[in-house]
Amino acid sequence: MQSPPSLGTENQSPFQVDSRREIISLLRGLKDSNQLISMLIHDGAEVFITSILDVDDNNNTVTVDCAPGQLANQRIIEAHRVSFEGLLDKIGIQFSTTGVHSAEFENRPALQFSIPSNLIRLQRREYYRINTPVSTPIKVSFSVEVNDSVEVLKLSLVDISCGGIAVLDEKKILDCTPGKIYEHCKLDLPTIGLIDVALQIRNSQDLVLLNGKTNRRIGCQFFNLSNSVLTSVQRYIMKLERERNSKMTGIR
């Protein structure tokens, strides 16, 4: 069986875990809590939902549920790299391998690979924020009342966590009173899709730019976020983290 690839050089990411004991503990945590995890091939072009069935320290193996259909499983086995993403106690877990093969677990088909030599564990979701790309700005749509009519206000996304987002309101139109809730805001995340969220205003700050102009940064908290939307947001954060790691590896 091939060894899983390293996610990067040592200390490439402040969230990388190299301790075998801790890696096994996290994987068993995903198994014991029956967490569904995403299994991605071809750089995320295909995504399958699976779960960890067994973590065998003695044989150095992780066993996961098969994808639906023989052809899908064959594509996973033949893929150069298979990545996995999941949530454990609202903390993102991410790892990858190059050596997936077919197996059997409790008399049913399964997939198996070596215990990864490292993985990424994101910080607690309330505190870990990641900036969104400036080159391709993402817009967040708010429904606001202007002159007794409802209009859609599109603001640029600055950063995102699974706890909330920050946006820029250049024209200072949005009522940013702390505690105010905006229902049915639309957030279009690349490769993830359009999600509908409720946002509660937490804070705002007027910024003075180098050209003398001002802009307003508004911090918003997700309000009553569903588990499915939380998973989508976490997947996007993991995507940004993967891209950041790839750039760092390329520089080296």
From TrEMBL:
PilZ domain residues: 123-238
InterPro entries the UniProt entry points to: PilZ_domain (IPR009875), Split_barrel_FMN-bd (IPR012349), T3SS_YcgR (IPR023787), T3SS_YcgR_PilZN (IPR009926)
Compartments reported by the entry: Bacterial flagellum basal body
This protein's UniProt keywords: Bacterial flagellum, c-di-GMP, Cell projection, Cilium, Flagellum, Nucleotide-binding
One Pfam family in the UniProt entry: PilZN
Domain Type III secretion system flagellar brake protein YcgR PilZN: 15-121
Keyword Transcription regulation part of the UniProt annotation: no
Subunit: Monomer. Interacts with the flagellar basal bodies.
Family assignment from sequence similarity: Belongs to the YcgR family.
Functional description taken from the UniProt entry: Acts as a flagellar brake, regulating swimming and swarming in a bis-(3'-5') cyclic diguanylic acid (c-di-GMP)-dependent manner. Binds 1 c-di-GMP dimer per subunit. Increasing levels of c-di-GMP lead to decreased motility.
Protein name: Flagellar brake protein YcgR
Species whose genome carries this gene: Undibacterium aquatile
